[in-house]
UniProtKB/TrEMBL annotation:
Top-level taxon in the UniProt lineage: Bacteria
Active site per the UniProt annotation: C222 (proton acceptor)
Catalytic activity: D-threo-isocitrate = glyoxylate + succinate
Keyword Metal-binding: yes
Residues binding Mg(2+): D184
Keywords from the named record: Lyase, Magnesium, Metal-binding
Cofactor note: Can also use Mn(2+) ion.
Cofactor needs: Mg(2+)
GO MF term list: isocitrate lyase activity; metal ion binding
Protein's recorded name: Isocitrase
GO BP annotations, alphabetical order: carboxylic acid metabolic process
Length: 530
C-alpha cells in the first residue's frame, strides 16, 4: 500500500462515518490534494531539508566529489523555474539547493526600492521571501502531479492498464521540488536577541540553513566592497548561539549554521576585545590591531591603550572611532575566525575572498583542517569576480612558469576577444569549467553558490528582447527569441496559464461542483495551440 492509496482508504472510512452529508466528497480527489500538498508548514520543510543537508554533508566527508550547488534567487517564480529546469534536464534535484542572498533582497525586494547591501532593507522581507520561494516550489509539485493525475485518468478511460501502473508508480515515487535554502541573515540585524527573533521567523518559513557574518550590524557592507568592520569573536559567538537556540526552540535540532568571515577584506574593527588572560580569544583578536608603543606620560586626551607583553600600546584609532588592523593579517584572521566558529556551534564556513583562486582558498582551509579535520566551506562563486580576467591571468602565469612563449599575450588586457580562441583562452576556460570540482577536492568546498546569477540573467535576457522588439524586428524578436525556443525546448512556461495554476483550478472546480463547474481550459482556450 502507498500513501496515496492509504489516503483514499482513510477518507473513504471517514466519509462513511459522516454519512450522506459527505456524498459529494470523492476520496481519491482528497488523496490527490493531499499528495499535492505534502508539506503543510514551514517547520516541516525546515526539518525535511535539514535532514537532506546533513546527509549531503556526511556524503561529502566520505567523498569530496559529491559537492552541492545552488544559484541565488530573488523571487519565488525564479526559484520554481530553476528547480523545474533541474528536474527536466538532470532528472533529480539531488545535491541542488537554493541560495537566498541578502544582496538581492536589498537590491530587488525592499519597499524602499533598490538599496545597497548594507542591511538597510526591512528584515521581515527575508522570511517573507523564504515563504514565497517554498510556496512556488510546492506549487511546482502540485502542477506536475496534476499533469500526472490527468494522464492517469486518460489511461484509465482508455483501459490501458500498463500505462495506469506506470503513471501510478510515478505518482507514488514523485520527487518534490522542495530543496534546502541557505538563507542570508546578514550580520543578524541588531543585537543577539534581534538575531534570534529573525532566525525564528526564517526557520518557521522553512529555512534549514542560516548564514551569518562577522561584520558589525550597523556598519555592514557587501563582502565585495571596501569599509568592512568586524566584531570580536565573543560578540559573534553570541549570535551563533542565538541562531542555534532558535533552531532548538522550534525543534529543528539538526539545523545548519553557516559562519561567514569577512576578515580577508575587513581592515577595521569597532571594538577592542575584552581579554582576561594572555593568549585568550580576546587577546588573539587584539593581537592583529595596528598599534604603537607609548609611555604613560605620552598618553593623550581620550586615548585608549592596551597592555601587551608587559608594554603599553595604543591602537590606531580613526576619526570614525574605528580601529585598524595591521595590513597583511587578513588570512590569519580568517583562519582564527573559522576555527573559533566551528568550535562554538557553526557547522559550515564561508570565507569571502577577493578572487577565485584555489591555492588561496586551500591555503586557509588546510590550516583550519589541521585543527578541525572535517571543516567544510560554502563558497561564493561571485559575479563580483571578473572570472575571465582572473583565470586568464592564472593561465598566463602557468604558461610562463612552464617556459611557454607568452609574447603574444598582453597580461593587462586579457579580457580582449582576440584571446578567446587561443591556447591561453582555452586553458583558462577549462580551469573555470572545473573550478567547482577541483576546489571541492583541494580546498574543502562542500557547497558552491552564485549569489546573484538571476539578477544578471534577467537583465541580459531583457536587453536581448528589448533591443530588437523596439527596433525593426518587432514581434519576430519575441517569437524567434522566446516563444519558438520555449516550444522547441520544452520550456513549461510556454503554457503560462497552466504554470499559473489554471488547470489545477479547473480540477478543483470539478471536485467542488461536479458537472456544474465552469472551466477555463475548454476548447476555446488559446493555450490549446501549444
Amino acid at each position: 500500500m502507498t500513501t496515496y492509496s492509504n489516503d483514499i482508504d482513510a477518507i473513504e472510512t471517514l466519509k462513511q462515518q459522516f454519512g450522506s452529508s459527505w456524498d459529494a466528497i470523492n476520496p481519491e480527489s482528497v488523496a490527490r490534494m493531499r499528495t499535492q500538498n505534502r508539506f503543510r508548514t514551514g517547520l516541516e520543510i525546515a526539518q525535511y531539508t535539514a535532514d537532506i543537508m546533513r546527509r549531503d554533508m556526511a556524503e561529502y566527508d566520505a567523498d569530496s566529489s559529491v559537492y552541492t550547488q545552488s544559484l541565488g534567487v530573488w523571487h519565488g517564480f525564479i526559484g520554481q523555474q530553476k528547480l523545474i529546469s533541474i528536474k527536466k534536464h538532470l532528472k533529480t534535484t539531488n545535491k541542488r539547493y537554493l541560495y537566498l542572498s541578502g544582496w538581492m533582497v536589498a537590491a530587488l525586494r525592499s519597499e524602499f526600492g533598490p538599496l545597497p547591501d548594507q542591511s538597510m532593507h526591512e528584515k521581515t522581507v527575508v522570511p517573507a521571501l523564504i515563504q514565497e520561494l517554498y510556496t512556488f516550489l510546492r506549487q511546482a509539485d502540485a502542477r506536475e502531479l496534476d499533469l500526472l493525475f490527468t494522464r492517469l485518468d486518460a489511461a484509465r478511460l482508455a483501459g490501458d492498464e500498463t500505462s495506469v501502473e506506470l503513471i501510478q508508480n510515478q505518482i507514488d515515487n514523485f520527487e518534490t521540488h522542495v530543496v534546502p535554502i541557505i538563507a542570508d541573515i546578514d550580520a543578524g540585524f541588531g543585537n543577539p536577541e534581534a538575531t534570534y527573533l529573525l532566525a525564528k521567523k526564517m526557520i518557521e518559513a522553512g529555512a534549514c540553513a542560516i548564514q551569518i557574518e562577522n561584520q558589525v550590524s550597523d556598519e555592514k557592507q557587501c563582502g565585495h566592497q571596501d569599509g568592512k568592520v568586524t566584531v570580536p569573536h565573543e560578540d559573534f559567538i553570541a549570535k551563533l548561539n542565538a541562531v542555534r537556540y532558535a533552531f532548538l526552540e522550534l525543534g529543528i535540532d539538526n539545523g545548519v549554521i553557516v559562519s561567514r568571515t569577512d576578515s580577508l577584506g575587513a581592515g577595521l574593527t569597532q571594538k577592542i576585545a575584552v581579554s582576561q588572560t594572555p593568549g585568550d580569544l580576546g587577546d588573539q583578536y587584539n593581537s592583529f590591531l595596528d598599534v604603537e608603543e607609548i609611555t604613560e606620560g605620552a598618553l593623550g586626551n581620550g586615548d585608549v591603550v592596551i597592555k601587551r607583553d608587559g608594554k603599553l600600546v595604543r591602537p590606531k584609532r580613526l576619526a570614525s572611532n574605528l580601529y585598524r588592523f595591521r595590513q597583511g593579517t587578513g588570512e590569519d584572521r580568517c583562519v582564527l575566525d573559522s576555527i573559533t566558529s566551528l568550535q562554538n556551534g557553526a557547522d559550515l564556513l564561508w570565507i569571502e575572498t577577493e578572487k577565485p583562486h584555489i591555492g588561496q582558498i586551500a591555503g586557509m582551509m588546510n590550516r583550519v583542517r589541521e585543527v578541525i579535520p572535517n571543516a567544510k566551506l560554502v563558497y561564493n562563486n561571485s559575479p563580483s569576480f571578473n572570472w575571465t580576467q582572473n583565470f586568464r591571468q592564472q593561465a598566463y602565469d602557468i604558461l610562463l612558469a612552464e617556459g611557454s612563449d607568452v609574447s603574444a599575450y598582453d597580461r593587462t588586457k586579457l579580457m580582449s576577444v582576440e584571446y578567446d580562441d587561443t591556447e591561453l583562452g582555452r586553458l583558462a576556460d577549462e580551469k573555470i569549467r572545473t573550478f567547482q570540482r577541483d576546489s571541492s577536492a583541494e580546498a574543502g568546498i562542500f557547497h558552491h553558490l552564485i549569489t546573484l546569477p538571476t539578477y544578471h540573467t534577467a537583465a541580459l535576457s531583457t536587453d536581448d528582447l528589448a533591443k530588437d522588439y523596439f527596433a525593426e524586428e518587432g514581434m519576430l524578436a519575441y517569437v524567434k527569441g522566446v516563444q519558438r525556443r520555449e516550444i522547441r525546448e520544452g520550456i513549461a512556461t510556454v503554457k503560462h496559464q497552466n504554470m499559473a495554476g489554471s488547470d489545477i483550478g479547473d480540477n478543483h472546480k470539478e471536485y467542488f461542483a461536479g458537472d456544474a463547474a465552469l472551466k477555463a481550459g475548454g476548447k476555446d482556450n488559446t493555450m490549446n495551440q501549444f
